[in-house]
Design goal:
The protein has about 800 residues and is α/β, with parallel strands linked by helices. It contains 21 helices and 22 strands.
Length: about 800
Amino acid sequence: MVTKFYQHILALTFAVKEINENPTILPNITLGFHIYDSYHDARMTYRATLDLLFKSHRFVPNYKCDLQKNLLAIIGGLSSDTSFHMRDSIGLYKIPQLTYGSFPIEEETEESHISSFYRMVPNEAHQYMGIISLLKHFGWTWVGLFVVDDESGEKFLQTMEPLFSKNGICSAFIQRFPKLARFDNIDEVYDVLLSSYNDVKDDKAHTFIIYGESMALIWLTAIFFFLQDIEKNDIESVTKVWIITTQIDFILLGLQRSWDLGIFQGAICFTIHSKKLPGFQEFLQSIKPDRIKENGFLKDFWEQAFDCDFPNPNVSMDTSEQCTREESLESLPDPLFEMCMTGHSYSIYNAVHVVAHALHDISLKRSKPRARMGHNTFELQDLQPWQLHPFLHGISFNNSAGESLSFTAKKEMGNGFDIMNMVIFPSKSFLRVKVGEVDDTAPEGKKFIIHEDMIMWHKGFKQVMPISVCTEHCPPGHQKKRKEGEKFCCYDCAPCPEGKISDQNDTHDCFICPEDQYPNRKRNQCISKTMSFLSYEEPFGISLTSVALSSSLLTTLVLGTFVKHKDTPIVKANNRALTYALLVSLLLCFLSSLLFLGKPREMTCLLRQPAFGMIFSVAISCMLAKTITVVVAFMATKPGSSMRKWVGKSLAYSAVVSCSFIQSIVCTLWLMTSPPFPDVDMHSITTEIIVQCNEGSVTLFYCVLGYMGLLAIASFIVAFLARRLPDSFNEAKFITFSMLLFCSVWLSFLPTYLSTKGKYMVVVEIISILASSAGLLGCIFAPKCYIIILRPELNNREQLIKRKN
């Protein structure tokens, strides 16, 4: 006898007693029951079922005596194969069968909807999803499986392995064990035990799932007690998390009652949902050995549970320990008998009440027409078992614990599963602590609930929460790399490639940051790029602004000086109007550099390059006009020269206007077809977003620069040819030097500009503008300002017309 399961009988007895004593349910009707054993054997299960159906004075299959009491429903069995074997026979007679065990998922058929098979427990599929949710919650991806070696175990594996793969979980091993722990073949048992023990010692797998029946726990406990001497390790050193399915209960039998269950400390058990029933514990406390005559099971239970014998008058000498009859069920350790109602007992209790309420509903329905006909009694003997089915389908009531009971469309109770944490005591007793639940009928997000702070893990775990993975988590900044020939849960960790990041553990593939962000050094985070442009506040901006404003002020002073001394010979020489135009152009050149500073906006982008091109073109045109004026003037001095008609201001003005007009046409075409606009460059510099002006048409931009360069080269050539003319009338050599400097600056500008990025391109262009403008101002006007301010005695007509000696 499995003494632990005696509570199932007592739960049945308690439920029947409660109904028979309740005047509101089936008044004047007494329910009775028979109990049959399945013997854990298919052949005996069939025989017991036939006995139940047809036994009278002797066993005659398919014959029913008229005196035999009417069988209306059957509750059982505990194991799936027992229940299915019973169903094969009972189903033929449409007798309602209410099972109280949790069974593997079956394929739905048309017969399943019309069968007489009712489950007092939820669908086991919910338990499977609960296990997956539990593993995912704690991040356990490397899990060992101990599965009973029968059809239900195979169905469990066929269901769980695809779920494992789908949810990123791997089975470290699959160990099958026999349904019943028999040790008659020592060599075979030793091999199985040794194989199981080696699997348990896996350093990486710290989480094991046990699927089977209660006898499986005896088998697993035997693994440690028979083989712990192999490595001389104490049983307490085995620190694992055991996930135990609903059909397994903690039991000890016979010689095993001295075994320690400490290895299962902290186990997480899925159990059939149950509630405390009022009066049940008092009912258990009332069970005494003086009621042995009333209870045919009590004597065997008592002797095995308390390891004693009652006196036997047929045996003269009995050396065994005698039962004192003062023993108490409360003194038994929990693996032998529990005072708290288990999930299976709760299901049996509910099954009795389901049948009773169905009968009560039938009695109410049939008593009304009988009362009208003058009959007040309702005979259950007139009722056939198949007539209960319509009432069982629609049953709905609250049991004594206040819980609502009703069947789903699939003939299952839908109360879900409880998740219990096992706390094992040295006295071999244990405490089940509810730490969660699985309920498929709950709202989304509450179908699986776990309170990990309530869980007491095995004391051998050093960390707060156990870890069960094949490979430690790949930290952020790394990605998984598959190992050849191994399961996908076993992998290497490779750093993310350049330009990619991963910000979570165990990333399969690193990803690229958004355009406005870039990876940090550890490649585990994206950092926002800074906006990059040449601002007025930074050192470069302050320096360049200061130089531009200082140069502009200097140019203004030079212009003021020339205006003040406008009637002096040195100012009047070489066309005073061109000098003023050149100075104003240089002033605007210096100021135009300020358009390149600050955050680019639509107007500044539109103006800065065309303005720069136009202003410089005017300045160079003035230089060219000055040089041409000198050359024409000297050519006109030759006798009979036809160049005299070109001498005068009109030639200079025409040169400036015509040269500037061509540049204005190019700039106008540029602004009309593809004007510059504000833009951002996300890619040139990794850590920055370059805010810049997109030139629109790059071709027209280089046309502007090219035309400006063409004017500069023409001016340089003309000035170079005229450099040997008499000094007093000639500033050509100063223009030569200025154009040489100008060309050198802009020839250096092009490669430097093209090789830089971001705001440094702007810096290069501003420096080129300031340097070339300063070169023109210095080379052309420094000598004249020297004479005007420091050597005014040289600023007279005689000095100007003086020939070179």
